[in-house]
């Protein structure tokens, strides 16, 4: 199926003739990048929108997920008549390099040994993920993406796209993200990694050789992270101190409170669809992310001369990627006379708000996409 | 050594003739309560101050800790000439029931089986801990405590003292605490418990029988909790994104960032001094804590008719026990015309601020203690 078909899954084999260099100094190739497309590419290939997914997301941005059977993770924002309108745009969403839904990652086979990479897989950075996406965009014959859009770690990729390939991006929508990972966020990631590494089923990352998986450690990692995705108010509103299936406390260690039961479910269901080593690699990539550090310590330098149109969005109760992080980016772009709009959405749903039905958020993305399309001279197909 | 000696460690055997009833419906006795005393009791036994420790604290409030060799955990606040002045007051600090520093807890021997209790130990609540402290105060022949003082879970005990035994307390100083544990705090505790339970060395709580300990799980639990004790700003100021002993990233899973190294150290050093089952029991006691629920859902009812003088203190950057929790308590006491002062200390050091050298905090405690002593007719010995 060609790239102009709608709602389809593909795998592209890239970096075949020449291995792709990585920030760590090693190189990798050939690599597989699994992606989905939605809508139709127009004749001059000017209507492509790349969606970048978050830490535990994947390419199934719309449509039924093949593993979980659930709806796509961004159907609130992407689809026919939605803010990112697949009647008008050609939407591409690729599983990141290092991921575990079809793209090359630590669960893939190392062609040189014929066994699973495990922790022999080279460490990849956000910039490496974007390099792989760039190879995909080249492969699809797209000179310039109309837009790159993503939240959380997806937003990091959006920023990296704009910084690495400013001439290949017309508009960028980094949502609920930051130009560098904070000490507190590194700390939470480190706890998750240590939970995985402490699981004896991890086997120094070589669990595939032992035909097992560190599911308990990965579940604990997911539980920790999940708390950071919600606001205190969201947890309070959703659960408070309500008891689970009981009139009174058990006076034991069962899940007495609904919030405990919910967290345990988040942990257990996650391990069915995610690879523990991928979790280690991807969290590490986020921790390393620091755009200013790559530009002499001055964030504004990263955007100097850029003609990319930015639409930054944050959520008021997001304490993982608080508004101040987006404001820092907006100021840096303004400092070099870039083109940037910035909105904080008032919500008590925390970081997860970017994945939820938030009407004001949807309206802002819709308005920005329409305005940018007009500026780009994109006519309805 | 008698209770009027200064700077001494004791163990009291309590509930000997009659087992102590617990909230869970079971009873426990005899119980050991390990405690330290500092300063001298006056002739009419009216100058006793009970210090209540937090989740991972113990009775070594001042003086060298016998296991870690470090200074007492509250030497900033307690000692000769300090706000809680041992030249003037007789300070008592007891290891909580359920603890692991000499008081009866899950690591103690079950007299009925001759083996370690483990998870056969009954679940204890904050009110049970306070019941045991009350037996100790009876044992010491003290009719009324001049003051009960504590931070975090220690503050919960202070509140419980004032509610359970209002006639036995003249003044109460609940610091950085809450009248009920929030959904977010329960969630963080649940992650810590799951980390311990996921450790195969936990052996369903019977690790003593296997001559092992779930140190990896306990270390992960401690790391998670430790993040919540600091503010985002404190982590940023203390560590930022600074690298550990390196000029550049390792592109691996070593502790590249100082914050990772710090957290790992916190986890590893904690397991040397703490019992994993105690951690399960004590976190559960905090989760269950809800004073309003015990009083028809109305917090103010808990304080109706109380003559206890309260001094509530919170810290502006504490997100584990935010200021709103203390304000809720102050309002409840005010609603029944109680005697309460409330101060929020401006600091960026997070929850841990109550353990640190914070001059304004020390001055407020000092002023309150002096004022209360005057009202109580306490003359310098």
Automatic annotation (TrEMBL), chains A, B:
Keyword Cytoplasm included in the entry's annotation: yes
First-listed, main subcellular location of the protein, grouped into a coarse class: cytoplasm
Annotated positions binding substrate: 222, 352
Pfam families: Abhydrolase_1 (PF00561)
Classification via InterPro entries: AB_hydrolase_1, AB_hydrolase_fold, HAT_MetX-like
Localization in the cell: Cytoplasm
Catalytic reaction(s) noted: L-homoserine + acetyl-CoA = O-acetyl-L-homoserine + CoA
Keyword Transcription regulation included in the entry's annotation: no
Domain AB hydrolase-1 residues, every copy: 47-356
Enzyme class: transferase
Pathway, per record: Amino-acid biosynthesis; L-methionine biosynthesis via de novo pathway; O-acetyl-L-homoserine from L-homoserine: step 1/1
Keywords, comma-separated and alphabetical: Acyltransferase, Amino-acid biosynthesis, Cytoplasm, Methionine biosynthesis, Transferase
Annotated EC: 2.3.1.31
Active-site residues (renumbered): 152, 318, 351
Similarity field: Belongs to the AB hydrolase superfamily. MetX family.
Quaternary organization: Homodimer.
Function (record text): Transfers an acetyl group from acetyl-CoA to L-homoserine, forming acetyl-L-homoserine.
Name of the protein described by the UniProt record: Homoserine O-acetyltransferase
Source organism of the structure: Tistrella bauzanensis
